[in-house]
Design a protein that fits this description.
2 domains; eight-stranded mixed sheet
Length: about 375
């Protein structure tokens, strides 16, 4: 299959004003300018001067974990019966037949990171998956993609209502440290067995088993944090335990953008199309992604679906452009940047030969609200 006569946004190189993308089976085979194309017998799709870019990636949402138009019965995001649940797997809660998956596909979103919620200081394991399928195990791109931690008002308010700990930011951080310290001890006992076969393995603990890969740097930590001081706490804890980490939301990130750039902290911003529903969102501004990006921070943009319906991911990026972000940087924030943050950039995020044939064809610029999606391909299949 060849998509030709398009404005190609490869995301790993400059925009090609008039070019093509070729793919075979599930894989991209070639990208280039039209003058370099030699047509054979392959089927073609004429983009007619429209835009062609990688399938979009939502770096943080709860797709499939919060059933559309359902209440408690469809809510599998927050296991608010225990503040630390690292052993929970989003994989076990996702309903791939939720109609919001179809809305994601129709909107050009081909990959998502869907996450347990932020009621708990440690909420569980995030899943990266494609948006097309009926059997979630066959949709997995990476599992676990990250471990979800949460700071700020969410754990405070949930457990205050239950009259249990944590009810302060101090207690939230202390619980996270306590669990990570236990996991360090558990890891050291495991390592001792590798050095001394006569040593005793620690008693199996599912929570610790889930946290040890985080301590080893094999699974990154995603910290829900809005306020600048909560972001600082996430950085502090991550440095104490040597974690690979990303800030999720980062609503006040622009206030410390230079410091985040110095620490080489990536930030998944959003959602932007919401009200200031709680005090820690008082600093919310559309300029946040632009200010972070200009400071040198690696930025992704998310919907936090269903906070903002997932099909409006490109609109969220367009609002970042309204806030001063360069359009190609904003497109990167919903394609190659989230792929890089998630550690799945070997498969998705750019139109690179060898990667998955996930592509979107639009009649106008992807941020033009009057432009229409002409076609969406996921692993080479037009969906």
């Amino acid at each position: 299959m060849i998509i030709l006569n398009g404005i190609i946004h490869p995301m790993d190189g400059p925009v090609i004003p008039r070019g093509y993308v070729a793919f075979s089976g599930k894989t991209i085979t070639a990208v280039g300018a039209m003058e370099d194309l030699k047509l054979g017998e392959e089927p073609v799709l004429d983009a007619r001067g429209g835009h062609v870019f990688p399938g979009m990636i939502d770096a943080h949402c709860h797709l499939g974990l919060l059933g559309d138009s359902l209440g408690f019965e469809g809510d599998d995001v927050n296991e608010a019966s225990d503040p630390c649940t690292p052993h929970l797997r989003a994989l076990d809660g996702v309903n791939p037949l939720d109609r919001c998956f179809a809305e994601a596909r129709a909107g050009g979103i081909t990959t998502v990171l869907t996450s347990p919620g932020s009621a708990n200081p440690i909420s569980g394991q995030i899943l990266a998956l494609k948006t097309n399928g009926r059997w979630v195990d066959e949709m997995v791109v990476k599992e676990p993609a990250a471990m979800k931690f949460a700071l700020g008002e969410n754990p405070k308010s949930v457990y205050n209502d239950r009259k249990e700990t944590p009810v302060t930011r101090m207690a939230t951080a202390a619980l996270i440290r306590e669990e990570l310290a236990k996991a360090l001890e558990y890891r050291d006992k495991q390592d001792k067995v590798n050095q001394d076969p006569d040593a005793d393995l620690p008693d199996f603990d599912a929570r610790m088993e889930a946290l040890v890969p985080v301590l080893r740097g094999e699974v990154p930590a995603h910290f829900h944090a809005h306020r600048a001081d909560d972001i600082a706490t996430a950085v502090r804890i991550s440095r104490e335990f040597g974690l690979k980490y990303t800030i999720v939301h980062g609503t006040e990130g622009y206030q410390i953008a230079d410091l985040l750039a110095q620490q080489e902290v990536a930030v998944i911003t959003g959602p932007c199309l919401t009200d200031r529903s709680k005090p820690e969102l008082v600093g919310q501004t559309l300029e946040n992604p632009a200010l972070l990006s200009k400071a040198g921070v690696l930025v992704a943009i998310c919907t936090d679906h269903p906070e903002t319906p997932i099909q409006y991911l490109p609109l969220c990026a367009a609002m970042a452009v309204r806030g001063g972000m360069d359009p190609e940087e904003a497109l990167a924030a919903i394609t190659c940047n989230p792929a890089r943050i998630a550690g799945i950039d070997h498969r998705v995020g750019t139109l690179t030969p060898g990667k998955d044939a996930d592509l979107v064809v639009t009649a106008g610029h992807p941020f033009d609200w009057n432009g229409r999606i002409q076609a969406v391909f996921l692993e080479g299949k037009q969906i």
